[in-house]
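Curious: why these numbers?
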Amino acid sequence: MNGLVGSVCRSRAHPAPLDVAAMVDARRYPIQGRSSAAVRFRDEARRRFDTDGVCVLDEFLTAAAVVAVLDDITPLLGGAYASTTYSTVYLQPADHAFPLGHPRRSEQVTRVGTLAEDQLSAGSLLRRIHESAVFRQLIADIVGARTLHGYADGLTSVNVLVFGAGDELGWHFDEAEYAVTLLLRPAAVGGAFEYVPNLRSDERENYPDVQEILTGGGVPRELDHPHAGCLVFFRGRHSLHRVTAVRSGGPRIAAVLSYDSEPGVRLSEHDRDLFFGRID
């Protein structure tokens, strides 16, 4: 581990304040200050998020920072909750009041291992990135939030998803308005993030277009060969998305960093049980 990254995690019992900017490729992504370059970067990121529902910052973390984060979590991966679940794209069981083929009745399969927030130490680099004022302000600026808060359930704010061979996330919409993911290790084959931005809204579910995607129609977008350290913001509540099955070169490892604009928010008990196998 090089001296730069070592300096941000040298003490787990009493961690020093985390310098997130030292872990970021600052030449491509000036996340601090109000220089003209920093303002242009934020403005362009916000424009992409507003227009496309997705903002991709590839190789946001430096290679050394990715290694440090992986070193931090690798000893914990054996404790990931492994599950195979079936649910609709709305993360609910099939509703047989709807006809065959309807999105409210069609179930998707998800196979993945998940580390919950409380499985990471307080000094974990991922938890400290999530709590960093600099990082939190960057997210707020891009998604247009005034303030951001972690989830209050103790499980959801920081998660690690571990995809072995054959693992996948089925098509779904998120409970949260937007999601922040950090790719730490891509798969060699498979494990692609696919999405259809802004497919529904608070006013319109748009069942016909959702059903078309589920039956193999439509043209979902795909992240173009993202590298380790790739940071992605997307409107998960309104954008249908999935991770295709890992074929080789796993495990694919990604962190999910969750926030809400209101304090005290908890993921629903149903979704906590679905993702973590427990509610507390």
